[in-house]
Write a structure and sequence with these properties.
By secondary structure, this protein is an alpha/beta fold. Helix content is about 50%, strand content about 20%. The strands form 2 sheets. It has a 5-stranded parallel sheet with strand order 2-5-1-6-7, with helices on both faces. It has a two-stranded antiparallel ribbon with strand order 3-4.
C-alpha cells in the first residue's frame, strides 16, 4: 500500500464507522478525518434541507477537509474520512475535490442494531436521531457495501483491509 489514496467510510449512525475508521487509520498509518467534528467545529449543523443537515453545509465541510487532507495526500500519506454521507452529492463533491485513488465503503446494519450500539456509547445521539439518520443514509448504496450487523469490528476491518490491498 505505497500509493497515495483515501478512503471514505459512510453509513448510518451506530453502524461502526468511527470505530472501524480509527482502527483502519492506525493499521495503515493514515490520517483520520471525522466529518461530524468539522460540522461542529464550524457550526454547520443548523442549515436544514428536507429535515436533514443541508447539502450546502456538507459542501462547506468538504472544502475544509479536502484542503486539510490534501496536505497529507501530497506527502504520500493515506487519509480516512468518516461520516454519514447521507447525501450522494456530498460524496461526489468530495471525490471531485481530491484527485487521488480512492475507495468508498458503505457500512450497513439494521436500525435496531444501530440504536443498540448508540445506546452503548458514552455520548448517545438517541433513538430518534438514530432512526432519522438511518433512514436517510441507507436510502442509497455507494461503493463497496459491507454488512456490519453480526460482525465484530475486527472482522469488518479485516474485510476492508483485504479490499484495499487488492484494489489500491
Amino acid at each position: 500500500m505505497n500509493k497515495t489514496f483515501y478512503i471514505i467510510v459512510r453509513g448510518p449512525l451506530g453502524c461502526g464507522k468511527s470505530t472501524i475508521s480509527q482502527k483502519l487509520a492506525k493499521d495503515i498509518g493514515a490520517e483520520y478525518f471525522a466529518v461530524d467534528r468539522v460540522l461542529d467545529e464550524f457550526d454547520l449543523t443548523k442549515d436544514k434541507e428536507e429535515g436533514y443537515i443541508s447539502q450546502k453545509s456538507f459542501f462547506k465541510v468538504n472544502e475544509i477537509i479536502a484542503q486539510r487532507a490534501d496536505k497529507f495526500l501530497r506527502r504520500g500519506k493515506a487519509v480516512i474520512f468518516d461520516g454519514n454521507f447521507y447525501w450522494e452529492s456530498a460524496i461526489e463533491d468530495l471525490i471531485s475535490k481530491l484527485d487521488y485513488a480512492h475507495l468508498v465503503f458503505t457500512l450497513k446494519a439494521s436500525v435496531d442494531t444501530c440504536i443498540s450500539r448508540d445506546e452503548e456509547r458514552g455520548k448517545t445521539h438517541g433513538e430518534m436521531a438514530t432512526r432519522v439518520v438511518h433512514k436517510k443514509s441507507t436510502s442509497f448504496d455507494y461503493g463497496i457495501v459491507i454488512d456490519t450487523e453480526s460482525k465484530t469490528p475486527e472482522k469488518t476491518l479485516s474485510e476492508i483491509e483485504k479490499v484495499i490491498r487488492s484494489s489500491l
